[in-house]
Amino acid sequence: MSRFTRRAFLLTAGVAGALAFTGTMALAELPALAKKDKYKVGFAQTESNNPWRIAQTNSMKAEAEKNGIQLVYTDAAGSAAKQVADVNSMIAQGVDVIFLAPREEKPLIPAVMAAKKAGIPVILLDRSVDPSLAKPGEDYVTFIGSDFIAEGKRVAEWLAKNANGKSKIIELEGTTGSSPANDRKKGFDDAIKAAGGFDIVASQSGDFARDKGRQVAEALLQAHPDADIVYAHNDEMAIGAIAAIEAAGKAPGKDVLVLSIDGGKEAVQAVVDGKIAAVVECNPRFGPKAFETMMRYAKGEKIEPWVINTDKFYDSTNAKDEIADAY
Ligand code: AHR
Q: How many helices (H) and strands (E) does the chain have?
């Protein structure tokens, strides 16, 4: 059972227990979405500092335009506080629905609750919130996104088969407190432990950013000169790590294996060039699924708690053939 499903299950069990105990406790209703000819919809983006975010934003904007939907777009520029303010501004503007990509799991809870209180349905995109504080089907409609635990696990499973004696891992984590950083760490660490024979010598946040990833990799490679694997939670940090490995006089792909998640064109090209060993895609093309889910909700359909995106996988066996389709 994934972390998301497991946590949702425990919460549901907890709520059921509370209901049995009080006998009268009523759950607050999720706001409904009226059928309309024209919708005004908010999309509160986290930041725009990498190709993944840009691909996600472009997909949302293109699909809104295709469906004649007015999109109120905001970019929180990497600040959870600004993202909360962005959602509050969307509430004040009277949008019909808010698509939210919450930067971190906890700080965006007040924004989700404020929208609910204002009667505006929220759909979480790509990142989730802490399920002990807000729940799909009750506080927000659903979470649309990849299985981040599975992404981390797929990297570990590839490594267990293809490490060729390499074993000392530097892990570059994503933004602290974000659901992809939490889950990609859990999926990878658990699977690598189960595989046996590997040692995570250091694990530190590079904030999903290229230059921060480079700086952190540089410091960790100095502290652990015997490290021969870098697992980065996204492409940007992997590309930063390649620069750090080369600056240390080592060859990425030979002396140090680099593994990544996202699957942008630059990273897939690095697989073709032999600098990245394997990449698990995290599909950023959210537009069609996001607006289709919104329209299903407007029709009164009960939406599943998690609308799952499927992800590809790239390594030397397919990167050249698949690169044309990478974003
Ligand atoms: O939430 C998805 C992650 O966020 C992507 O892996 C990363 O590149 C982005 O910033």
A: 11, 12
State the residue range of the domain holding 39.
3-145+284-309
pLDDT digits (tens, 9 = 90+) for 248-285: 999 999 999 999 999 999 999 999 999 999 999 999 99
Q: Are 59 and 135 contained in the same domain? A: yes
CA distance 111 to 175: 19
Q: Which residues line ligand 1 (CB under 6 A)?
A: 50, 52-53, 126-127, 180, 208, 234, 261-262, 282
CA angle 120, 126, 128 (to 5 degrees): 65
208 Cα: distance to centroid of ligand 1 (angstroms): 7
Q: Is residue 320 part of a domain?
A: no
Residue 142, number of CB atoms within 10 A of its CB = 22
Residue 180 CA: nearest ligand 1 atom is 1
What digits encode the pLDDT tens for the residues 27-65? 468 999 999 999 999 999 999 999 999 999 999 999 999
pTM for the whole structure: 0.90
- Is 317 among the domain residues? no
- Our count of domains for the chain comes to 2
Q: How far is the CA of 52 from the centre of ligand 1 (A)?
A: 6
Residue 38: what are its φ and ψ, rounded to 5°? -135, 125
Q: How far is the CA of 45 from the centre of ligand 1 (A)?
A: 11
Counting ligand 1 atoms within 8 A of each CB, the residue from 4, 46, 49, 53 with the most, and so the one to mutate, is 53
Ligand 1 center–CA 57 separation, angstroms: 12
* Helix extents (H) in 129-178: 148-162
Q: What is the CATH number of the domain that holds 118?
A: 3.40.50.2300
Mind listing the pLDDT tens digit for each residue in 14-28?
A: 333 333 333 333 346
- Do the domain assignments include residue 322? no
